[in-house]
Amino acid sequence: MSAGPAEAVGEALWAARFAVPADHPCLPGHFPGRPVVPGVVLLDGVMEAARKAGLADGAGLPAAKFLRPVGPEEVVEIALRRTATGRLAFTGHVEGVLAFQGELA
Question: What are the start-end ranges of the H helices in the chain?
Answer without folding.
Answer: 39-52
